[in-house]
Design a protein that fits this description.
By secondary structure, the protein is α+β, with helices and mostly antiparallel strands. It has three domains: 115 residues, no CATH class; 136 residues, 2-Layer Sandwich (Nucleotidyltransferase, domain 5); 31 residues, no CATH class. The strands form four sheets. It has a five-stranded mixed β-sheet, with helices on both faces. Strands 1-2-3 form a three-stranded antiparallel β-sheet, with no helix packed on it. It has a two-stranded antiparallel sheet with strand order 9-10. The structure holds zinc ion. The site of zinc ion has 8 residues, from loops.
Length: 337
Amino acid sequence: MQYRSPSRNVRSVYDVLEAFPSERVCVDHLARMRWPNGEVCPNCGVVGRAYKVKLRFKCSYCKTFFSARKDTIFEESKVPLRKWFAAIFLFTSNRKGIPSTQLAREISVKQETAWFMLSRLRQVADNMAVEILKGIIEVDECFIGGKERNKHAKKKLHNNWMQGKTIVVGAVERNGAVITDRVPYRDRNSLQAFIMRRVYRGSTVYTDEHGAYKRLPQHKHKNTNHSIGQYVNGDVHTQTIESFWAIVKRAHKGIYHQWSQKHCDLYLREFELRWNLRRLPDGDRLDVFLQHVNGTRLTYEDLKHGQRKQLRKRKARQLRKGVTRRGRKKGTQRRRK
Ligand SMILES: [Zn+2]
């Protein structure tokens, strides 16, 4: 019999809580979404040989117990899956995002918990990001950040309105997905490297009159001229990407107020995700999201102290110096300077 998702007619967060009344229903649904061809045992890798024991699964091959949360963003989280599902619904259906304070109130958890949950959800958004675009593509760049004149006198560094802001370049496919990247400068090298990396060769690229886009070697290029008031020239315009920036900027100003350079990329992934899923019904968004929660366990440590890579580096460095978890290794001495 075909599986009927409980989230098929979900329209609001109340519907989500009604459609998933218990942890059991949530576990079943998560298992269905994660493993469409049968449960995969994380210990031995055997597919479809597990059976349910209360809220867990037991592999009939290697006899180990495992949870549907294993190797997902839900791993080691004490928050019930019901609340997680409600959070995913709010995260994917609020068009300008949801602040952690608001989420905390909606699903009754602490603000710190909500903030951490949102960070984990952004990690999934990163997983679901589109890599490359094809067809008719609009490319434009945007500046994110507060005004220089609003900064404290000690922090004021620049006179130019562009400086001190984060430059983000984006590409959107007509009736398709969006991709964004941070770039260091608004010059030919940075912008054209972005296009080369993220747009298939031979695709048509529409931009504004900015000189850095001129003479694209491997793409067909057409542009409008905003400086003379020309915003649309036949089919050539950049209104789609502009409307994406409008959402990002309003959310930055009105919902998040500020985001740090460190987490900027993850915030951008969040907006990409919402844009890319915008045509799906609300309930389907939840299901698609659950299909991508695999292998994205983000620990608080990672989030607070940068990426895993940095953590690994630090551990390796400590190991070289002879510092282990329990202190200094036997027989190793601190190097004298
Ligand atoms: Zn097994």
